Amino acid sequence: MLLLFEAIVCMRLLFKRRNRIEVLRQMFVGGIKSLAVITVVASFTGMILALQTGIEMRRFGQEVYIGAAVMVSMLREMGPFMTGLILAASVGSSIAAQMGTMVVSEEIAALELMSINPVRFLVMPRLVAMAIMTPFLSFYSCIMGVVGGGIVGMTQLNVPWSAYIDNATRFADNKDLFVGMLKAFLFGIIIVIIACHQGFATTQGAVGVGNATRRTVILSFLTILIVGYMITRLFYV
Amino acid sequence: MIQLENVTKILGERRILDGVNLDVRRGETLFVVGPSGTGKSVTLKHMIRLMTPDEGRVVVDGDVVSEAAGKDLERIRDKFGVLFQGGALLEWLNVGENVALPLREKTKLTEDEIEAKVMEKLTMVGLEKDVEKFPSEISGGMRKRVGLARAIVMDPQIILYDEPTSGLDPVSSRMIDRLIDDLKNELGVTSVVVTHDLHSALSIGTRIAMLTGGKIVELATPGDFVKSQVEEVQQFLESQFITVRGEWEKKGL
């Protein structure tokens, strides 16, 4: 929590051009570079959702409603959840390994000695970048999931694209979108804070870097699950 | 200039430093030598408060660095430049950007002024043509020289060197020695060098401290160091084949 507080305090330094450039660089490294894997995972998640619900609904002749099922599932849960897991495994582990290696090779000590605050220099740009990019990626994953579900609907379940989209947009409301975005925003922050904290706490050389990376992925997964559940409970119960 | 007063440091169950007293004089090049694991780097880290003593204190120019925090610590640290063992260069910045980092982060110099200062320091270490290269593209010796250029770019009063010649070939090692000596002679900086390399210590050191078992067992000029009767010093000299007494004295050291 202290790390998060310090990083938030440092955000006033975003007014400096150099810091803004670093945030943009991190948005590219952490966000844009994850687009490919998110496209594949989200598309197949939507396809699986459509197929599973469609097969059951077809028994009652209601397969036309798979659009609603896919859209609501993706917006509320699967979009932010899948995005969070993918980013924890890719970006979170990468941040932890980088911070850990910097600790081991005395780069963090060198920064401290130059009176360059490592939280401001390293954590803050990553935190801002992921807080912006995770909701964006989550929204993108929802679109991909819905498109994937629509393709399965058309090709496997004989649901016309127009009916699929019509149902998808009719049953989802703004609240679903905003709650999903809120989850994604928090997941982005959680991933960066856990990764940086674990990275900074690295000891014992290469083994320590490996342990920091492993702990980052496990802790991020668990925290994402718990926070996801609590937000769902807060807004939908 | 730097005083370690009865400094004790315990890591785990090991007493790494055991009541170390050491006085670094202004303008000298003090070498701290000794076998691995005897607390040489730990001693260095106490001088800049990357470590805090469990007992005793560290004083730099009248300021108690071991108790300083915030802006006070920053002010004390501004007096130091440190060359870390591996150079501690940021891998995503090129050579020029690494050297410019403290200037960009801590001063209000224009980009032109920064560039001029970076080139001046890189020229001093003989790397003015490698400004665009990244740390992964240069050798270990070059990394250390870039680290040295970064350490001196803010014109510090004191430079700390952590194993500056470890892992380097003899030619590169002597080049680093010459740079350390030039910095002392040209800029008048105070230097503290932690090393295993007795050849460096005897060649360019003003005084040499031998650290063994967490204690300073000898502190002498190079000429007196080779004549020391302390058993640990004799073993250390013999381990590096420095057995011909008097050779170092003939050079007027």
Task: Explain the overall architecture.
The complex is a heterodimer of chains A (237) and B (253). By secondary structure, chain A is mainly α. Chain A has one domain. Chain A is built from nine helices and no strands. In chain A, helix 4 (66-104) packs antiparallel against helix 9. Chain A is elongated. Chain B is 38% helix and 24% strand. In chain B, helix 3 (95-106) packs across helix 4 (111-124), helix 3 packs parallel to helix 5 (140-152) and helix 4 packs across helix 5. Chain B folds into two domains: 1-79 and 158-168 and 179-253, Rossmann fold (3-Layer(aba) Sandwich); 90-155, no CATH class. The longest helix of chain B is centred in the last third of the chain and has 18 residues, at 170-187. In chain B, the strands form two sheets. Chain B has a six-stranded mixed beta sheet with strand order 6-7-8-3-9-10, with helices on both faces. In chain B, strands 2-1-4-5 form a four-stranded antiparallel beta sheet, covered by helices on one side. The mean pLDDT of chain B is 85. In chain B, strand 4 (55-60) and strand 5 form a beta hairpin. Chain B has helices at 40-47, 70-77, 95-106, 111-124, 140-152, 170-187, 198-204, 222-225, 231-239, 247-250, and strands at 2-11, 14-24, 29-33, 55-60, 63-64, 80-83, 158-162, 190-195, 207-212, 215-220. Chain B is α/β, with parallel strands linked by helices and 253 residues long. Chain A binds chain B through residues 18, 102, 105-107, 109-110, 112-116, 121, and chain B through 45, 48, 50, 74, 77-78, 80, 82, 84-86, 88-90, 101-102, 104-106, 154.
